[in-house]
Design a protein that fits this description.
With 158 residues, the chain is mostly helical. The chain contains 8 helices and no strands. It is globular and about 40 Å long.
Length: 158
């Protein structure tokens, strides 16, 4: 699925977002976080967890955050309209759709990163990337031991 994300999901998703959001740093972070969260293999959180999609979003957390944040809400509405989610989709609607719509999940993941202050971590800033991941995703059980390899792998395929 990593290959599909690079080949199909990224181009289609970034086409829906402002060009300024498409940077090597954004792509690197999105790949690292996808590897960290789902290994690009799981659309539902393993076990009984509530997270959905390749970037593992929760309804009351990231989905609601992107829909309501002043820096992302208009971009989120544009993406939803372009993907033919008519009317004003609710948090529940988006949460349900993210599980099987990789473009929507990718756009929301990029928008969540857009809410962070400052520049995203670059190729040689693994620890900065970890801190940004923690700040944006707020994982319940962060696995720092996996991050260095996921971050390295993400940048190696770019």
């Amino acid at each position: 699925m990593l290959h599909n994300t690079l080949t199909y999901v990224f181009p289609a998703s970034f086409a829906l977002l402002p060009r300024v959001m498409d940077t090597p740093e954004a792509r690197g972070m999105l790949l690292a976080i996808g590897l960290q969260e789902s290994e690009f293999e799981h659309r539902r959180q393993l076990g009984t967890g509530p997270a959905r999609g390749l970037w593992q979003f929760e309804a009351a957390g990231a989905v609601a955050g992107v829909l309501l944040h002043p820096a992302t809400k208009l971009h989120a509405r544009f993406v939803l309209t372009e993907l033919l989610y008519s009317g004003v989709p609710t948090v529940k609607d988006v949460y349900t759709a993210i599980e099987h719509n990789d473009m929507l999940a990718c756009c929301f993941a990029r928008l969540l990163l857009w809410t962070l202050p400052g520049l995203l971590a670059g190729r040689d800033e693994m620890e900065k990337g970890w801190l940004q991941y923690l700040a944006a995703w707020q994982p319940g059980a962060p696995r720092h031991v996996d991050w260095p390899e996921n971050f390295r792998q993400a940048w190696s395929v770019l």
